[in-house]
């Protein structure tokens, strides 16, 4: 999809900032896409939930809850 922006009224500083922000956004999207599309050990493509950068929040085990719960205000 192509969009047209009127940048003629931007100062040099505003243009540089705009380009830097766009470049950062593009690089972030590219890195995310590359990470998600890696081929897994089983030949599948997608996110690796064991990847520390995946962002998934692991569910605590009952033992974790028993040992760590009181520190967070949970009663036994």
In short:
The protein has 76 residues and is mostly helical. 42% of the residues lie in helices and 0% in strands.
Describe the structure.
This protein has 76 residues and is mainly α. The chain has a domain at 10-39. It has helices at 12-36, 62-68. The radius of gyration is 22 Å and the shape is elongated. The protein starts with 11 loop residues before the first helix and ends in an 8-residue tail after the last helix.
Q: Which structural class should the secondary elements be placed in?
A: mainly alpha
Instruction: Determine the number of helices (DSSP H or I, runs of at least 4 residues).
Output: 2
The biggest beta sheet reads: none
Q: What's the gyration radius in Å? A: 22 Å
Terminal CA distance reads 56 Å
Helical amount among residues, as a percent range? 40-55%
Kindly state the mean pLDDT as a whole number? Answer: 75
Please state the overall shape, judged from the principal axes of the Cα atoms: elongated
Name the poorly predicted regions. Answer: none
Q: Care to count the β-strands? A: 0
Strand residue percentage: under 5%
Order of helices and strands: HH
Characteristic key phrases:
76 residues; mainly alpha; 2 helices; elongated
Write the layout of secondary structure elements.
Elements: H1 12-36, H2 62-68
